[in-house]
Amino acid sequence: MMKMKITYAKDLTSLVLDAFDKAVDDDHYLVEKKDRSQRVLTPDGNQIPVNMFGGVKKGSELYVSNDIVSIMNLCRHLDEQEK
Amino acid sequence: MSLPKWFKDFSLIKVNIDLSGLKQIKLLSDNNIGSGVKAEADEHSKTLVVKVDPEHLKNSSKELEEVKKLIKLAVVNEGGIIEEDTEKLIEDVSTFQHDDENVQLLQEVRAKLPAKDVPIWEAAFYIRRVYQQGGHIEGLKRNIKFRFGDRGGNIVNLCTAGYLEEIILPIYNELSSNPDFTIEEFSAQYEVIVTKYPFAVFVAQASPDSAVLEEIKSKIEYNKAYGISSLNIHTIGKDNKRKVLAILDQAEIKQLFSRDPKITSDGDVLQVIVYF
């Protein structure tokens, strides 16, 4: 069955981050709220500047960076999951 | 009314129309709703718009917790919650990755070019397609430069100008047809191309006139030393076109040419071939 599409407006980024107990450090990267020394990573291991945060996918919370290479890796990952 | 089961726990989000087969939930910001949360449904498009007022939510912990719960359950039950523009990008990239022409080209790149550059080339193919369709590529190019530095930016420029198919792959094919071919032989030439691209100058908005002038002069010298007698200059945008044409009109550079440059202009895109 096709999954429902759920989107949020860019200006609600901090609300979405807050829902997952994430914060933004002084260098504008996503970090764990409970341990601000721990940066949040994309599935391909990259840190995420808040202006490139693109949402959260299922897969024990998979954090999305909207840079084009991360998106390409994500699409491939989702394709493989569907197979 | 038929909302997803997980959605029925929400006391603040009430919808009184039939939304069976709900396709989309949009979470939007609106500071004129008079409360922390307000839902509006469009039965025709099967879309539920949940408007939230972040300022109002600061003073209403019940509403804030409900919206946060909605966001978390969206991921658990529906596969994710994605920022609007990122969702469009994901859909477009997914379609692009299944395009036969792209699949074939990517296979060729995987087989012939260094593995570390394959993700950059794949992204560059997508950026080239956006460019060819008249879309904006500056943000995408910035992404690549942020992650891969100048090498990433160079590869995007080379790809957009068609140099992969015109120069890089033909060099590989020519060299590899030799029985004594070694990959190191190709890699040496490839590295020069992606780091120095001696056959081309890409003029960006931020390039000062003096830097462009020096780059053209030094690449003419470099090419001459290898017996090459032409150089391509690429740019996009009205101001950049004016800048390039003004630089090429300077006596200092004109004296290096053996004949008049070949100028091709298509809308905001300019390509000049200079001969020496």
Description:
The complex is a heterodimer of chains A (83) and B (276). By secondary structure, chain A is an alpha+beta fold. Chain A is 27% helix and 23% strand. Chain A has helices at 13-19, 68-82; strands at 5-8, 22-24, 30-32, 53-57, 62-65. In chain A, the strands form two sheets. In chain A, strands 2-3 form a two-stranded antiparallel sheet. Chain A has a two-stranded antiparallel ribbon with strand order 4-5. The model of chain A has no long low-confidence stretch (mean pLDDT 91). Chain B has 276 residues and is α/β, with parallel strands linked by helices. Helices cover 54% and strands 17% of the residues of chain B. Chain B contains eleven helices and eight strands. In chain B, the strands form two sheets. Chain B has a four-stranded mixed β-sheet with strand order 5-6-8-7, covered by helices on one side. In chain B, strands 1-3-2 form a three-stranded mixed β-sheet. In chain B, a hairpin with a 2-residue loop joins strand 7 (259-266) and strand 8. Chain B starts with 23 loop residues before the first strand and ends with a strand. The mean pLDDT of chain B is 89. The chains are: A alpha+beta (83), B alpha/beta (276). At the A-B interface, strand 1, helix 1, strand 4 and helix 2 of A face strand 1, helix 2, strand 4, helix 3 and helix 5 of B. Strand 1 (5-8) of chain A pairs parallel with strand 4 of chain B, so a sheet runs across the interface.
